[in-house]
């Protein structure tokens, strides 16, 4: 961290330092390897397993594909990773080089974790992409990241352009053969390639719900810090009583990506699924005796209300990790009343910070409804008044700034965005309106609240002079653009009329998960003297019920 904690007075209750006006984590301290040590994410994870006494011939399942029922034991996983490392070095011509980017466009499968770790070990940048991304979105991301090779499946590969090393099909017999080549001497994962912790390990895309999708570069040190911060909170141990996790979130996003790293590093059993069906989730909890689910707020809302839960044995379930958006306090209370023995771990994080930077964890935090808990280890924060740059004490609202080894290297190929997002001391401006209370618990105020989803995409629109366009027309127009194939509206005249009536910014082609659900019309977009949109003004309108005044 940039600050030396021992030289300042940090309040033991809130974590706030009055001298630096900075908030510090109250979680147990975490040790990271020396920054100059050459080590990849893969080698770090496997070293943690060795220290924990997990045997390389461990036959317990660590990965289960809920769609196919197939599983990988720890020993199978290691064998496939090493085989793929060797295959990528010898079977790809010309050979891939450290630092090249590998785009991955695929539904979840047992192949993906193996592929991720093999690429980590070789210093190849892992770049998973939402398979619902439109071709135009893919084109933009490819232009900014310049991938050398793609890994995909047959039905999705048609979306991809020609790349220097082509596209490897994960559902082909050729790829299966890459996983089974005999490797006589596994050796050290870093023996073939020297990897610095400052090297880029992965590029993960932001959701794009508040603007264009941005490719975020995360270094090996970023991911090592992420894994380390999870270690103190893991649910159980390897062996007969190993924890069983069910991931209801995609592996291409930072939430699912981080849960995969956590599960492998802790030798937990992770169940992957490609469906969001509520009843299927209940059946998986019953079948596999799931202890922990990572999910989005709608699932928690469904559990709080649905009568379907009465038909399943959920007694194994201890925790639900909820992220992606805020969970409404009313939903939390209904859930707790119905399931008093299942705790909700509410998270807050960004792709730019490699997922979780705050969470509710343990007694005294579970019932802080509406909060996202204390800062995670290896994170420091400020609350900054956007109007004058003043750092604020507990109880005052402002923009959340973050710093530490969890914070991204930057946006790939976007120096202008990096200049705006970081201050000269490498504080990351999150753009989220927040405050810490006197106990150091963080509250996020930046959302358009929704009873089930927690937050929903909302548009604030300035009509052009003479326009009488309605909110329903705007919602329908955006929805028509976001079909499975990303098509625009079929009638060019209709599209022309709508785009002439409204100042469209980034809604040219959108994936389904980014479709707006609510529209408010404004006379103008409030901006700071520097030209930055003052999002807190809109948040005030939503939270105060003053939308009509717009």
Automatic annotation (TrEMBL):
Transmembrane parts of this sequence: 114-133, 244-265
UniProt key word Transmembrane: yes
Gene3D superfamilies the record matches: 3.30.300.30, N-terminal domain of ligase-like
One Pfam family per UniProt: AMP-binding
Xref: InterPro entries: AMP-bd_C_sf, AMP-binding_CS, AMP-dep_synth/lig_dom, ANL_N_sf
Superkingdom of source: Eukaryota
Protein name (database record): AMP-dependent synthetase/ligase domain-containing protein
Organism (species): Nepenthes gracilis
UniProt lineage: Eukaryota, Viridiplantae, Streptophyta, Embryophyta, Tracheophyta
